[in-house]
Amino acid sequence: MSQRPQQRIVIVGGGTAGWMTAAALGHFLDDGFTVELVESDAIGTIGVGEATIPHINVFKKALGIDEKAFMRATHATYKLGIAFDGWLHPGHSYIHAFGDVGRDVGLCAFQHFWSRGMRLGFAKETGAYTLNTIAARAGRMHDGAPLTAQTVPAMPHAFHFDAGLYAAFLRDHAEARGVKRTEGMIADVRRHGLTGDVTVLRLADGREIAGDLFIDCSGQRGLLIGDALGGAYEDWRRWLPCDRAMAVQSPRLADLVPYTRAIAHPVGWQWRIPLQHRTGNGRVYCSDFVTDDAVHDELIAGLEGGAITAPRPIRFTTGRRREAWKANVIAIGLSSGFLEPLESTSIHLIQTGIARLLKFLPAGPVAQVTRDAFNAQFAFEMERIRDFIILHYWANRREEPFWQACRAVDLPDSLRAKIDLFAASGQIFREGEELFSEVGWFQVMAAQGIIPAASHAMAEAISEADLREYLELIAALYTREAGQYASHADFIARHCAAPMAQ
Ligand code: FAD
Q1: Does residue 207 share a domain with residue 277?
Q2: pLDDT tens digits for 161-175?
Q3: What is the pLDDT of residues 309-334, one digit of tens each?
């Protein structure tokens, strides 16, 4: 038993953010801490957020979660990347795939060989040299057997899952590790007169919950970080003007593809997320350019198999809290900020918020320098993801007024520098702990029409014939490899089908 007084951690909210945080704290903290989660059944959760990126595997492994059990419980499917349909122009399509493009040959990244091949006129779109893209387009998934060719990289994958079932799955995990759940509506938040720290939450029925550290997972409202502490919010709509979404579910698709679809529309875009038992759909749009009614009608008319739920409107302001950690409150999830789900980054941001919390968790009083470091890391991470999303909108060749307006935005300096460097030299440098790798930036810039004017000297030095052969070899190798994989739908049916989806 620890000698120091027990620290009481209170998590406000039981959505994806709340239960991921609770599961992690329950798993990692010793008996020097108690963890209590408060959620309101009457308010409920946002109920969207069903596509992830491969980093979720780190969370899963750290918590000792079995992949197949988790997939069965959440009706999950595999995800090998995101198909962007119509983003460059109507009719165009590419996949931003997880994992490598081409082959790593050490000193010189693949993008240099590719860009020279493009300038010479024989290279194909990057997807032709990407194992995950080839497998995804063919509806196939590596079935866990050793990869056939030694030269083929492993296939990084993520998941699509049912958000409500995921929260329930994590709740079981958290409660089994001592997290206490309290159901009730928080009606009042009390603060310390001198420090401003939150001290007590009062529920509508009069119960009180005291704590030392509060994790605000209350969603868009930001009950503690915003309402109680008045934390400022930085608005990013000048770069990312979409401010609304409409979500609806439709029946399971016959072709259970292992990728998310992000389909560009004249205003905004639409997601399609295939699950074992149903399909998640939604439009993200800008209220300056289209009405809710028009989006509603288009969304319903375009659904395969019709709607099985009533369309749900959601409003949002893209941006972030200036301070995600203020006083003794740490915001994780939608309370800390919002970036539209174009690259499925919000659940990942919950995960990195939890990792930062564990890294900085104080054994005693919090020093301001700790908050500053936490907030600086949070700001950097959010801004770099923001830049990546702006890139998708900015590098378009569509004619509609919405897309023209997206092309006209004044880019943040950090993004401008990245695009200019790539366009001039083919170079991309990942900075610090930014989420997206060189390969991610490469895929989106290249597919959305930014072709470097020059390549690395090594790529410029090889003969045209050798370069052509090299590119053809990679494409053939990956096509052959993916051709041997199981169909994604069969793989799910055999190994991880949810009982009701079988
Ligand atoms: P919520 O789910 O809103 O949970 C808030 C919790 O706080 C609830 O339990 C509620 O009851 C509780 N609460 C609030 N007020 C009170 C009160 N007064 N008293 C007691 N309890 C209270 N992310 C991805 O990674 N991939 C995606 O594909 C994706 N798609 C998205 C699509 C859209 C349109 C939107 C808006 C978001 C999407 N996200 C996505 C983000 C994702 O949905 C969220 O990051 C995730 O669901 C976490 O939400 P949350 O837990 O912060 O908030």
Answers
A1: no
A2: 999 999 999 999 999
A3: 999 999 999 999 999 999 999 999 99
Residue 500 in this model has a pLDDT that exceeds 70 = no
Question: Tell me, what CATH number does 348's domain have?
Answer: 3.50.50.60
Predicted confidence (pLDDT) at residue 202 exceeds the cutoff of 60: yes
Please answer whether residues 336 and 324 qualify as being in contact, where contact means their C-beta atoms are separated by less than 8 angstroms: yes
Residue 331 lies in a domain: yes
Length of the chain: 502
Which residue's C-alpha comes closest to atom 34 of ligand 1? Answer: 245
Structural domain containing residue 190: 7-50+162-233+318-366
On the CB side of 5, CA atoms within 13 Å amount to 7
User: Mutate which of 12, 48, 200, 329 to test ligand 1's pocket (most atoms within 8 Å of Cβ)?
Assistant: 48
- The Cβ-side half-sphere exposure at 345, using a 13 Å CA radius, reads 18
Confirm or reject: Cβ of 46 under 6 Å from ligand 1.
yes
Bridge-based pairing of strands 319-321 and 325-326 is unpaired
Question: Catalytic amino acids?
Answer: 79
Is 400 in the same domain as 477? yes
Is residue 72 included in any domain, yes or no? Answer: no
Residues 31 and 115 in one domain: no
Does residue 362 have a pLDDT over 90?
Answer: no
Most ligand 1 atoms within 8 A of CB, residue of 320, 334, 350 to mutate:
334
**Domain count of the chain?**
2
Q: Is 366 in the pocket of ligand 1 (CB under 6 A)?
A: no
Tens-place pLDDT, residues 73-92:
999 999 999 999 999 999 99
* 45 touches ligand 1 (CB under 6 Å): yes
Dihedral angle sign, alpha carbons of residues 295, 299, 301, 302: positive
